Amino acid sequence: MRDDLFLAVYPLARRAAAVRSAAAKGAMKASWLDREDIEQEILMSAWLSLGRFDPLRASLPTFIERVIGTKTTSIVRRERAQKRIRPEVNGPGIGTVHITVTIELRVDIRRALQRLNRADQIVAQLLLEHNPTDIARKLRCSRAAVYRSIENIRAVFRRLGLEKY
User: Fold this and answer.
1) Which of 8, 17, 19, 91 could make an SS bond with 42 (beta carbons 3.0 to 4.6 A apart)?
2) Where are any strands of DSSP class E within 8-78?
């Protein structure tokens, strides 16, 4: 990331995000979305996009304006789109999985895995890329032992309320 570039362009990005988020809020049907949430998502997109900035193609202010304009349009389109399931009024963040929820989920999963014994932790790690038969071959144990480990993993996840993961 180019944090030095972001600090240089932050006032412009903040102003453009404020103007665009106010306009986007007026253009959207969703009343559960705050203008500040839209502004924050736009600024985050601008910051993450700085790695793609090429001074030979455009000036930094022009690049930021383009990124902010594109992101704002994307947010409006996403919120206007016909959806099968609408988010709850008290639901988290903006439409997609919010980064905080993702981080909290990773922490919860890591805690669950730490509660397992070493053999079950190894099986859990191998399950990311292999099926139970391959795991049994790799560990030189029976498939029944692998399935017992899988059941132990599921039991820990159930106890912590993470059964769907």
Assistant:
1) 17
2) none
Query: Does residue 8 sit in helix, strand or coil?
Result: helix
In a shared domain, residues 13 and 54: yes
CB of 39 within 8 A of CB of 25?
no
Q: Which two tokens stand for residue 3?
A: 């944090």
Domain of residue 151, CATH code: 1.10.10
Which amino acid type is present at position 141? Answer: C
**Which domain, by its residues, includes 18?**
3-80
Q: How long, in residues, is the chain?
A: 165
Each residue's pLDDT tens digit, 69-112: 999 888 888 877 766 555 555 555 454 555 666 777 778 888 88
Query: pLDDT by residue (tens digit) across 113-159?
Result: 888 999 999 999 898 899 999 999 999 999 999 999 999 999 988 88
Cβ neighbour number for residue 110 with a 10 Å cutoff: 9
Q: Which of 59, 94, 98 is nearest to 79 (CA)?
A: 94
